[in-house]
Amino acid sequence: MWFNKSKNQILDYAAVTAKTGVVTTDHVTGKHYEEDTTRYKLAVVVKTHDLSTATAEAKVREVVRYTETSSAFDILVEVKTGIEGSTTTHLGNEKVITATIATTLNPPATWTLRFETRQDIGRSAGHGQGMLAAVDDGVYLFNRDLDPDLKLVLAAAMEVVEFNHMQ
């Protein structure tokens, strides 16, 4: 089931359509933490003004680890009002995106994107690795002499990564 659709522009280069759908969600309670896992799919289509197209079909796995504690005040509020109360402390999260990208400029070829981010809140440590990244303000910079097929692939890959940073 698709639940989120969006359209935007990459300046005067291309129109972008993206849609997201949940595949599965899971909750695990461990000895010292709880963990929520969400797996969803993402489809991105980048269509240039000369009608060349790149499609990216992505799978995303996102894991959030946290602890919940209840204070005496939380318990009192629950007893008096029936409203559950607790404090949630995030321990960390990770997201892994894998995508297959194809273009109309080179139909038999496919490209694979794998992008990982990890954040350990307790130690304030972060990790990110991937094929590429977009500039923070959403500006994509391409070499003037870049092959048109590669430019289209990179635009689709950056849209996949950027879309998931907005989630």
Question: Which descriptors apply to this entry?
Answer:
167 residues, alpha+beta, 7-stranded antiparallel beta sheet
Write a structural description.
- By secondary structure, this protein is an alpha+beta fold.
- Helices cover 17% and strands 54% of the residues.
- The mean pLDDT is 83.
- It has two helices and seven strands.
- The protein has a seven-stranded antiparallel sheet, covered by helices on one side.
Mean pLDDT: 83
- Main sheet characteristics: 7 strands, antiparallel
Distance between the termini: 17 Å
> Structural class, please?
alpha+beta
Overall, the morphology is elongated
Would you list the SSEs in sequence order as H and E? Answer: EEEEHEEEH
Instruction: Tell me the fraction of residues in β-strands, as a range.
Output: over 45%
What is the rounded Rg? Answer: 20 Å
Widest β-sheet, arrangement of strands: 1-2-3-4-5-6-7
- Helix tally? 2
Helix content: 10-25%
Low-confidence stretches: none
Number of strands: 7
Structure summary:
Helix content is 17%, strand content 54%. The chain contains 2 helices and 7 strands. The longest helix has 19 residues.
Mind sketching the topology for me?
Layout: E1 2-10, E2 14-29, E3 34-48, E4 53-69, H1 72-81, E5 87-103, E6 110-120, E7 125-129, H2 148-166
Antiparallel strand pairs: 1-2, 2-3, 3-4, 4-5, 5-6, 6-7
